[in-house]
Amino acid sequence: MKIAKSVNRLGTEAVYNIFAKTKKLIKQGKEIIDLSLGQSDFKSPKHAVDAAVKALNDGYHGYTLPNGIIECREAVSRKIKSLYNANIDPERIIIMPGGKPTMHYAISFFGEPNSEIIYPDPGFPIYQSMINFTGAKAIPYNMTENKDFSIDPDKILTLINEKTRLLILNNPHNPTGGFTEKKVIDKLVNGLKKFPDLAILSDEVYDRLIFDNKKIPTLLNYPELYDRLIILNGWSKTYAMTGWRLGWSVWPEKLIEHVFKFCVNNHSCVNTPAQYGAIAALEGPEDHLDDMMKEFDVRRKLIVSGLRKLKGIECTIPGGSFFVFPNVSNTGMNGEEFTKKCLNEAGVAMIPGTAFGKFAVNNVRLNFATSRENISKAIEKIDKILK
Ligand SMILES: Cc1ncc(COP(=O)(O)O)c(C=O)c1O
Predict the structure, then answer these.
(1) pLDDT, tens digit, for every residue of 186-223?
(2) Closest ligand 1 atom to the C-alpha of 242?
(3) Which of 79, 173, 212, 386 has the greatest CB tally within 10 Å of its CB?
(4) What span, in angstroms and rounded, lies between the C-alpha atoms of 318 and 179?
(5) Topology of 5-43+287-386 in CATH?
(6) Could you count the other beta carbons within 10 Å of the beta carbon of residue 92?
């Protein structure tokens, strides 16, 4: 049996290895506080659950069109209008089984040998994995250079050359929790005018998880980019619906027929009752999101102040998402050594920065979408092993 070389170029998400190791330790009777996974501990909104159950009971369980039911695409279009005052034709919206397929398809559209794709490092690991899979050259930009983990538009612009096909942006940013402000995005977009053939994938999956009353400078607010802009978003993070596998994406008109074919070739359509739940989530009350963000803000401050009290740890307060990305180098350990020690000796699971690329050797990612009690306990346990 001989498998294609491209398959060996696929990467993975280390979070799943740590998840498996954590589960094994728990099975052995160890008490583990798991701060590794990238999801909220909140429940999906009840009105979304009810709508999906009703859809099933009403017989909506067959195939739908590959780009999603029109009612769902219209609901996304209305939500974009109400949140960002941008007019997006539902025909340019594709409902996806999660945020990831948008990444997969967008990178596949532009990546091939002798082309280059620029992506954030540290960054969501699937960017680099998919770029390598296509045979394109993966060109990272370092997200650890600014203290607040915001992007540096000048540095990104210097990486673009005639081989560059796609630029990947992610704001707010996983794993750092960094948030890039509008004036910086303005500067980047202005610089991109010089490269009209370059496509942009803007991963905005954490767009509603931003603190301090700030709003995302969504790329949807730059209509001059619409003929080369792909937006990745979805229900996973905003509505605590990770396991539903629901995402939405916006594409340039000329790519729609290709995306449609990718959907047909891959997943046929998104789970039908889930799409009805998705509409209810978008159109229902948002108390759930408000409550979640109020609680995340408390937890964010709790974990940052706790980490800052620990010997040898520096921690920036995240502007968005539910991650902190402290630097642990002054403990005398790098991120990987620190992660191992925390799991084995303190019973706290987290992810080393190197799971997200090559630059964040001295960082670790902790998820604070867990109870205040878990956060406080985790800090106490780590404190003990650092003394
Ligand atoms: C930056 C980023 N993009 C995309 C995704 C994928 O989201 P989904 O679970 O909806 O596929 C994630 C998930 O963690 C993420 O952190």
Answers:
(1) 999 999 999 999 999 999 999 999 999 999 999 999 99
(2) 9
(3) 173
(4) 7
(5) Aspartate Aminotransferase, domain 1 (3.90.1150)
(6) 19
Q: Both tokens of residue 10?
A: 């696929």
Is 24 in a helix, a strand, or coil?
Answer: helix
Single out the residue of 227, 195, 231 nearest to residue 216, CA to CA: 231
232 vs 94: CA distance, rounded Å: 10
Rounded distance, CA 144 to CA 121, Å? 8
Q: Is 73 in the pocket of ligand 1 (CB under 6 A)?
A: no
Asked whether the whole model's pTM tops 0.85, one would answer yes
Query: Tokens 């396991």 identify what position?
Result: 243
- Pocket lining: 170 vs ligand 1, CB cutoff 6 Å: yes
3-state helix, strand, coil in the chain (%, to 5): 45, 15, 40
What confidence tier does 19 reach under pLDDT thresholds 50, 70, 90? Answer: confident
Amino acid letter for position 217: P
Do residues 267 and 259 lie in contact, with contact meaning Cβ atoms separated by under 8 Å? no
Looking up tokens 């009971």 gives 57
Of 275, 102, 276, 293, the C-alpha closest to 213 is 293
Tell whether domain 46-283 is in CATH 3.40.640.10. yes
Query: What dihedral do alpha carbons 382, 383, 384, 385 form, nearest 10°?
Result: 50
Compute CA 35 distance to the chain's CA centroid, rounded to the nearest angstrom.
16
Cα first-last separation, the chain? 53
Give Dmax (Cα) for the chain: 60
Torsion of CA 357, 362, 366, 372, to 10 degrees: -170
In this structure, the number of other CB atoms found within 10 A of the CB of residue 248 comes to: 26
125 Cα: distance to centroid of ligand 1 (angstroms): 10
CA-nearest of 309, 357, 313 to 334 is 313
Q: 112-168: per-residue pLDDT in tens? A: 999 999 999 999 999 999 999 999 999 999 999 999 999 999 999 999 999 999 999
Q: Would you say the CB of residue 99 lies under 6 angstroms from ligand 1?
A: yes
Which numbered atom of ligand 1 lies nearest the CA of 246? Answer: 10
